[in-house]
Structures are given as C-alpha cells and as structure tokens.
Amino acid sequence: MSFRHLEPRTGETTAQVIRFALWPIAILTVLNRVIVKAVNGNITDDFRPVYNAALAFLNRREVYTANFDSVDPHYLYPPSGTLIIAPLAVLDPERSRWLFIGVNAVAVIVALYLLLRMFQLGLSSVAAPVVLLAAFSTETVTNTLIFTNINGLILLGEVLFMMLLLRRHPYWSGAAIGLTIAVKPTLAPLLLLPLVRKEWRVFVTAVGIPVVLTLLALPLSVDPMAFVSHTVPYLLETRDYFNSAIVGNGLYYGLPTALVLALRAVFAVMVLVSLWLLWKYYRHDELFFVTTAGGLLLVASFLLASLGQMYYSMMLFPLIMSVVLRNSVMRNWPAWLAVYGFLSYDSWLVGRFPEFGRSIEYLRTTWGWSLIIIVIFAVLVGRYLTARREGRLDGGIDPAFLLDENTTSPKPVPATTAGTAATH
After folding, report:
1. 51 vs 88, 89, 144, 174, 210, CA distance in Å?
2. Are 66 and 56 in contact (CB under 8 A)?
3. In Å, how far from its chain's centre is CA 6?
4. What is the pLDDT of residues 31-89, one digit of tens each?
5. Phi and psi torsions of 392, nearest 5°
6. In this structure, what is the dihedral angle of CA atoms 19, 24, 27, 31, given to the nearest 10 degrees?
7. Which of 57, 274, 305, 324 could serve as a FRET partner for 213 with CA atoms 20 to 30 Å apart?
8. How far is 232 from 248, CA to CA, in rounded Å?
9. Helices (runs of H) and strands (runs of E) counted in the chain
10. Taking a C-beta distance cutoff of 8 angstroms, is the pair 186, 79 a contact?
11. Cα four-point dihedral sign 273, 277, 280, 284
12. Which residues neighbour 23 within 8 Å (Cβ) at sequence distance 6 or greater?
C-alpha cells in the first residue's frame, strides 16, 4: 500500500516555502485573537456602553447620560451613529458582543484583501500571509477585538474609500467614508484628498449620508440634543489618560504649555510641507499619493489633535502597505522603528524599573507617530533638495535610481492588462 498521496506538498521555491510556513501560523493567530483573546475580554470594555446605548435607544430611553468623571469607556457616538448601532441590542449582550467581534474580524480581513488588490497582489503572493499575520499580531487589531470596538469596520470603510476613489467611483467612495463619519469622525481628514483632486461628487454622499442619518435619528431619539450639550464639550476637552496625542502626554507629564504648543507647531509645519510636496510632485502618481498623503493626514490628526489612542493606528495600514511601491517613503529602517512604536503589542512595563518602563510604554505611540511624520518629511524634502541640486525638478523628485530604471525598463503594462494578470 502506497502512502505517497498523503505526503504534504513540498515547496520548490523560496516563495512557496514562505507561504507554506506562514499561512498556518497566520490563520491560527487570527483564530487565537478572535476566539480566545477577544472572547476572554479585558477590564477595558468598549462594547458595554455601546450596547447599553443601543438598548436605551430601542426602548425610547435617554442615551447621553454618561458620567465623564470616571475613566471608564463612555458612549460618544452622535445620534446618526446610535441609529446605525441600534440593531446590536436585538440580541442579548453576550451573543451581541460575539457577533460584533466576528464582524470586526471579518472587516479587517476583507480590508487587508482589498489592500492587496489595490497594490495588484493576490492571495497566491507571499505578501498575503505576511500581511494577515502582521496585522493580527499588532496591538491595534488585537485590542480592537479584545476591547470590542468598531475600528475594524472603520478600517474597511477607509480602504473602500481609497479603492473606489482610485477607480473613479466618487459616489460609492463618498458613501464608504460617509458611513464611518456618521459613527465617528476618525476618517474625516481624508476628505482633503478628493478636495485637492477636485472630485466634488465624493462630497455628495460623504456629507449627505451622515446628514440624512442624523435627520432620521433625531425624531427617534429621546435626548438627541444632549449629545451637543453633554457629550460634545467632553469631546473637545483634552484628557490626560489613554491619550497618546502630544497635548495628552503634555498634560500627563506636566509639560509647559508653550513647549506643547511649540511641538505641535513644528510637527504641523512638517506635515504641511510634506503635503505640499506630495500634491505638487506626486498627485498624478495616484496610488502613492492617496495612500501616503492619506496616512500622513491621519497620523497628523492622531498626534496633533486633542485625542489620539494607540489602536487608531490601524488606519495607517494603507500607508504601511505602500512599502511595496518602488518610490515608497516606507523603504527605510527609521520608518519601521516608528511602526514598531505605534503597532507593537509588546509591553515595556518593567517591574524592577517601574518609572523607566512606564515612560517607554506611555510614550512609544507618541514617538512612533512623531517619527513617521519626521521620516515622511525627511524623505520628501531630501528628494526635493536632491532633484533641485541636479536640475531635474521639472521631471519630478523621485530618486535617481528610479529614473534610471524607468529609462531602461520596457514600456509598462497597461492598467487593465496588469489588473487582469494580477488575478491569476
């Protein structure tokens, strides 16, 4: 009797070996995060206030009653968001939470797949298991599932927005980001992308959907104006806990106000210069422009606004994925040092040296966001100065080795053909 048909397939190339090694590790990591860590939960529970608000909304009770004197998670969604999440309360709390965990996990996986397709990569590429394993090993995905919040769906909305924007579907692109803004305004800075590209139709649905949902929610809510009078003032405050923004850490460590303002001003200038260079020299390189400028806008909003939490970093996945582009700003070691800072699930709390450990643990997200802004600024300004010195600004600011490669390489494959080939 022969058992040869039972022999596992052996990798014949390095790429096959890597895929065979990483796929089972990636899949089991996903299952661990979803059915073990997430189901077990944590003392931090973002889902409970959301479920309670949905239940109150369905039972015609007041929703905006949170006591903001505590550090427990609070319900902060506007009436339009309350309307969207209301169906959660149809189930009992435990099953509803499990469902929400599953939906967010699926949303992250779909978003990662769409990111691969945006960069013309498929499930047969080495990148697929690498991206899946890396994403579900991060703090942002892990804690999104454990704390059970909506960030997975927000990521999916972001990727759909970018993908549909690049494919010239403005109304659907606006709808994708509009649904997320109706719940929370995390992605609102990305609307600068269609604005500078003069794609006005995006705003029809991006603004229209939150407005329509708000108008629908107002008569169904018992206390809709309490969101304005009770919740909005809290949202405008700067808190000194669970806040990795510059102003949050400045408040926690008691830094002088002038120093905090100076830091914010310096980083704001770097962001503005970088955005100008991206618009002037890269707006026609659409995939690079949308993913890089979009990531820069988001990380700037996390670092420079009044509130930035580590698990917001999930929204930087498109920027990180741009590393596969030849002219990516992510192709250097400082960029990945920054990525470690705001994505790593490692804990730096040291029992023998508590002050040292706390400082690194509390500040690593802030320096990670800060460093990625510095990296993007340094790469773009360095390219600009080099191109100006060499007298080739009219041809763009890409590095010389890319220009030499483009002059000697064959004519690029048309987009339609490349897109078809990538599906096989």
Report:
1. 7, 6, 16, 27, 21
2. no
3. 43
4. 999 999 999 998 889 999 999 999 999 999 999 988 887 778 889 999 999 999 999 99
5. -130, 30
6. -170
7. 305
8. 18
9. 21, 0
10. no
11. negative
12. 129
